[in-house]
Amino acid sequence: MDEELRYKKICLLCHSKFVDTMLNTLIKGQVTKIQSKTEKKQRATGYFIQCGKARRMNVSGNKLVPVNVQKNTKITKPDDTQIVLKDLKHIPIKEILQKYSRYETEMKNIFNKYKKFSERQCAKLQNEKFVLWSDVVMIMTDDQMYEMARFLEQKLCSQEELGMYTEFIDAVLLGEWALRIFMDQFKFHHKDDALQHIKLQEQEFSK
Fold this sequence. Notes:
The protein has helices at 2-50, 93-98, 100-114, 119-128, 133-136, 142-156, 166-185, 191-205; strands at residues 55-56, 65-66. The chain has eight helices and two strands, in the order αββααααααα.
């Protein structure tokens, strides 16, 4: 009888430990998911809006929607010209990140030269020197952009600098990197030609 009682106690103890382990695992998984979503939402609603590249990232998986961005200038396409939709949304994120080495020197040069510019200075640079993020936002998915931004920060910032230059990365470097990938993917030799095609297809396919 004592032996049977002891066996039952052991079984109950094992069951209790098993349940505790399962609950802790589930809780940890949920906390990780919440933290990931919070980080993604903060980057989308905080950094991008503050930089003047206002855009909203819906963490539920819907398409990215630009908010309060500068309107693209209307471009008249030549008569009888067929506009082919070109974007990078079909490229896996892993493959996009692997392309970084091709542009690493350019990204480092831009980052090191302009990373300490104020928000106002960045806005001026976006109009005079760099690509407006609103000009290329339609060629990528929200997940691609989020992972690209994180990747750039990890590559370019030291441990002490993490979080210090997120605005600059989101506002300037993301657009520059995305456009370079687009140009190589579709054989555009000049930045202006690539931007013109993006604007034309945005006008054509948003009707």
